[in-house]
TrEMBL record, chains A, B:
This is LacI family transcriptional regulator. It comes from Rhizobium oryziradicis. It holds the Pfam family Peripla_BP_3. PROSITE patterns: HTH_LACI_1, HTH_LACI_2. Residues 18-72 form the HTH lacI-type domain. Keywords: DNA-binding, Repressor, Transcription, Transcription regulation. The lineage of its organism: Bacteria, Pseudomonadati, Pseudomonadota, Alphaproteobacteria, Hyphomicrobiales. SUPFAM superfamilies: lambda repressor-like DNA-binding domains, Periplasmic binding protein-like I. The keyword Hydrolase does not apply.
Amino acid sequence: MKNADASLLDATGTIARATIKDVAAAAGVSVSTASKALNERGRMASETRERIQAVAQQLGFRPNAMARALVGQRSFTLGLLTNDTYGRFTLPIAAGLSAAMADRGVSVFLCAIDDEPERVRLNVNAMEDKRVDGLVVSGKRVDRVLPVDLPAVHMPVVYVNAACPPGAIGFVPDDEGGAHAAVSHLISLGRKRIAHVTGPRSFSAVGLREQGWQRALSEAALLCFGEALSGEWSEAFGYAAGQRFVSYPVSERPDAVFCGNDQIARGLIDALTLSGIRVPQDIAVVGFDNWEIFATATRPPLTTVDMALKELGRQAGLTLLDMIDGKPVEAGQRRLPCRLKVRESCGSPAPWAE
Amino acid sequence: MKNADASLLDATGTIARATIKDVAAAAGVSVSTASKALNERGRMASETRERIQAVAQQLGFRPNAMARALVGQRSFTLGLLTNDTYGRFTLPIAAGLSAAMADRGVSVFLCAIDDEPERVRLNVNAMEDKRVDGLVVSGKRVDRVLPVDLPAVHMPVVYVNAACPPGAIGFVPDDEGGAHAAVSHLISLGRKRIAHVTGPRSFSAVGLREQGWQRALSEAALLCFGEALSGEWSEAFGYAAGQRFVSYPVSERPDAVFCGNDQIARGLIDALTLSGIRVPQDIAVVGFDNWEIFATATRPPLTTVDMALKELGRQAGLTLLDMIDGKPVEAGQRRLPCRLKVRESCGSPAPWAE
DNA sequence: CTGAAAGCGCTTACAG
DNA sequence: CTGAAAGCGCTTACAG
């Protein structure tokens, strides 16, 4: 017998779901006893308990989460506010968050906001009205804050890949560490003249990745290959940078380039390849983002830094749950480790490095 | 005075939100009168009504949506189930849906499911427990159905960019129409030898786009330029196709290529350009998807078909709301119009076409 | 025009 | 071990 068969048609002809009252009646006990049996609470004859559970199962009973929330003062829902309609960052973060939360019985509302303050307010209000237990705010840059006065919000908040106001709790990728890992890997492969081509200086990630590059080099007692080249986060800029390297005499070219993102790496590889420079033999290239659509389309496939965005979303959610439970959690921004995804553009096919 | 100031600290030290009881007490009326005043229901002295509303405002009162849902048998929430973790389709759809719903006071739960039936079940159960009013199911292919027995679900369901089971209601882009518009535009620009390079035949979208290509051609009394070239949805395949055209004698080359997606178009343009063939002068190229990251990175920028995914999400949500309201809505799949995004690869800068 | 009562679907002390 | 009562925060008939 299918559970649906046990459902009753109500007056309007739609299917009415069984309530705990139905279960109690069918089992011949009171509602409070039914509740206790279904929640494994208190002591009771296990024979009774099992009978009630069997009846519930048969009626396809599922407790109404809203009724539960009302008495428990806890909705088991979260709100995710994001202004990244582009989707590059939000979707992995949301997927990681949503999956981890689903396993714990909590569901997450998606609020796609542009940066119009009025719409932000609308969405925040909706989340308050729906009595979500907490909010995760996610952005597309770690140095920009959303235009909402979130501190005035009556619930725990966690920031992901977005600026974290003083005293708040945030999660961002460890840009410096990721860059350090990428450059160290290049060094371990024997490269010594490692250039850096990256995005606009106005992004804090640019400074951090540059520091990682410098630290890896100095730890290996190597000099930076000139200044970092800062420009746009685009293929076009990567291409231009590649042409610039090509114009150097062979002896003055870098033997590797660490790029600030995958698009730059893609453009750079195109420029190099067009001029007959072999990647990785002549110049090794490493990117940043592991945006698969780019990283797997380059020839050869791109070695790049993965920011572990799913994990970022997951950790943010778990921490938010702790806060909701009243556990003490330290204020401040956490930098979660990136991991290097080794493909072929760095000169190491490295099936073992995976 | 800020609203937050009016909040009271409860026993645990967290901020307690004002309830309707607080409002009623502060205004010196009964709870039922307060409710009526706040909901603009029934008749009452407008002086009383305004006084109550003022008190509510001052206390920062916001009705608890879950309590409301409990009595109204309507939660003003929706679930969005998607298996497109890739994000290409889901994010625009979700953004369009979420924005349209937010304006109507309904919030949407995001359920990122892989295709593991067990996790699908987990998420569907969560949505049922949370008593969402309806479900929108979105996928990454219009010819694949999710592995859930959704008909057994006790609520209205709408499918977006996914297969639509018999008798259900679905929304997909009008692939045939989009292709027709793209090819017609090429024809209007004077092209006559229009080839088609596209994805795997196993995708229904491939057949539909091919039909659009054929219809536009036959309406203009033009012949197809050979068979459609079917391969992968990748730059690599587009590149290979481009090389193939290059290998033809000049007089036997197409003067335009309609590509099944933007990645193919990108690869094709690269191959053409590398061989000294000018785009669009020698061969015009049009893509499909308007995936901006590709469409704006090609040289020249790509003219392509936009599937209007945001609008798809919006329409799906509005229709779902109608179903929830009990309005009659016709079963079947709706094909929503695509629109051509004219850039430069088709040979028409067309500032007026925008 | 206003308020007391009942109820939405649950859980949680508290009596028996 | 089991059940009656009260209550979570609201709304909706129904009396006054």
